[in-house]
Amino acid sequence: MTEESMDIDMSMPTNTVEEFLRMERMPHIWCPGCGIGTTVNCFAHALETSGLDLKKVSIVSGIGCTGRVAGYLKLDSFHTTHGRALPFATGLKLANPDLKVVVYSGDGDLTAIGGNHFIHAARRNVDMTVILINNFIYGMTGGQVAPTTPIGATASTAPYGNFEEPFNLPYLAESCGAVYVARWTAYHVRHATKAIKDALLKRGFSFVEILAPCPTLYSRRNRLGDGLDQMKFYKDNSEIKNGADTKTLGLSFQGKIIVGKFVDKDKPTYLDSMNAFYAQKFGDTYSPYKG
Amino acid sequence: MKADPKGVVAGAYFIDGDHACAEGAIAAGCRFVAGYPITPSTEIVERIAERFPLIGGMFIQMEDEIASSIAIQGAVWGGKKAMTVTSGPGFSLMMEHIGLAAMTETPCVFVDVQRGGPSTGLPTLPGQGDMMQARWGSHGDYGIIALCPNSPQESFDLTIKAFNLAEQYRVPVLVMLDECVGHMTERVVVPPADEIEITPRRYWDGPKEGFLLFKAGPDRVPPMVKAGDGYNIHVTSLTHDERGYPVMTAAAQEKLVRRLIDKIRLNSDAIVECREEQTAGADVVIVSYGITSRIAIPAIEQARREGVKVGHLRLITAWPFPAKRIRELSHHVSCFVVPEINYGQMVREVERCVAGRTRVERVSHGGGAVHNPKDIYAKIMSCGKEERK
């Protein structure tokens, strides 16, 4: 079929999320069956319904497959260094508190090389949203073991299987101070979209973990089928338990996945605390920091 | 553009080089500092932490130097002038982000108060061993600017200059202090704000349509916008085109990285600064920087009293290096003497420029103290014309 013969108004987006994407950069680099694109779709829908001024939304990624998200979104977008999206985002947010700053990156980027930054960003309760796509593996570099790889799963640098205890990320986020913590999978698109929207509208350090299939490097190596098989697995093995104790949310290899919203509380942000503290200390000589 | 009077507290002070650096940053309009405690640089962030709350600045002590060196870059894209401050071990940790700032053309200032190294080395004692690291420490090829103050007054002045150069060339600028200058207390004059020249950020003021964040003008420096301005900018550490989009080709690499290097190399006549004293007709020329430029003075004076024509060339910009000037002098001088608190770093640049035309002698010191001027004097006396007769 030639373009001329198509009876489609090309000026209209075929998908409402297209206006949030840099369509000139398509096709993206992600593999068939990868869950990252699904989460981007959720994110775009969350933005669409959030009522946020898109001019004021900045997205920051680290390095890796999920690290490429920033580059596909039609927002002010920053693709930084491996593991360092959070301190970049901290600087950006504190320089201009009017911005809504979103960090969108992978499990290896945010919790291995960036683990120290993760705990401190949560501790400070800098007002930002962190969306972590957990595919249990380093995808971009060829399927190496990650701090999220379940015990028993194999990876290119754990050819006999992983024996290290993986992170329970919701527990980590909550214990470090996150005010909003949720976990969903790429199967749960409506829940994930709602969670991202809630997180975007929450003041403080909000955290959404989304489990996503990596068919090329995780599923295939572990004989778990393709992307669709992993989605079926998520469907059959996820249990929604809102408010579950985050201590109980550890993941095992192909075991049950507890999903839901686990933490949603209010706490002064970094800037709230700083301004209140200095106002008390200095009295009228202090003008609240507004960037 | 003139400095903001709210931050500048004009007057004459008796303060050390670290405190003067903090005041220079404030005068330059810096209102975001991220740092991590490390001797002998800590006094800079301590003063910033005290001064910032009441002048609308944001100081944050980050979890490490890696975080500090990228938090400042987030702040720059958020619209602030920003700086981080460290010493040897922290400087090593910051290397990747000097490359990031070079690659993304993020104007910012890194201050390194040098101490003895390698590794933890001599935390409280001087060194000048980070000079090559300043130039080449991040992987890949790129250009930077590095300045070398030799007094608290210059620490103030050159920190302002560092911010101005960062904005002029959209490049990370390094202030290479050393422990002696950082901790040396002297008179520092802070001029009134309206006498301090500040280079504003080169924000794009043309039409929004068709704006390209990495499209440079004739001086090879592209204009900037900031997050929140409605441009949907994309800034990546990957090799990118003029839109800022990643392009993984040799052609894109050649176009971008050559410009990153050329914007410093081809503008070096405008950037390079050195101070010369009695170099015309000199037989021996001392090339020095930082504290060593002051330690060399008694040696130079003693040699002059004994009839040797000694000139002194002091590096203000270590990078770019004053290659042209050293080359000119090498046609007339019989020996360059290069004292530095390392086992031979900037002397390699002198040797490169001299290209075998004349002698180049190093006076090395491993760090932990300054040179004994007698060692510099002895070298002068051993390499001049008189000695060689």
Brief characterization of the structure:
The complex is a heterodimer of chains A (291) and B (389). By secondary structure, chain A is α/β, with parallel strands linked by helices.
CATH fold-level topology of the largest domain in chain B: Rossmann fold
Superfamily at the CATH H level of chain A? Thiamin diphosphate (ThDP)-binding fold, Pyr/PP domains
Summarize the main sheet of chain A.
Answer: 8 strands, mixed
Helix content of chain A: 25-40%
Give the N-to-C terminal Cα separation of chain B: 56 Å
Quaternary structure annotation: heterodimer
- Given as residue ranges, the uncertain stretches of chain B (5+ residues, pLDDT < 50) are none
State the end-to-end CA separation of chain A: 54 Å
Shape of chain B: globular
Find the structural class of chain B using helix and strand composition: alpha/beta
Major sheet description of chain B:
8 strands, mixed
Count of alpha/pi helices of chain A:
10
Total helices of chain B: the number is 15
Work out the strand percent of chain A: 15-25%
Interface with most residues: A-B, 41 and 43 residues
At the fold tier of CATH, the topology name of chain A is Rossmann fold
CATH class identity of chain A: Alpha Beta
Whole-number total of structural domains of chain A: 1
Q: Using only CA atoms, what is the Rg of chain B?
A: 21 Å
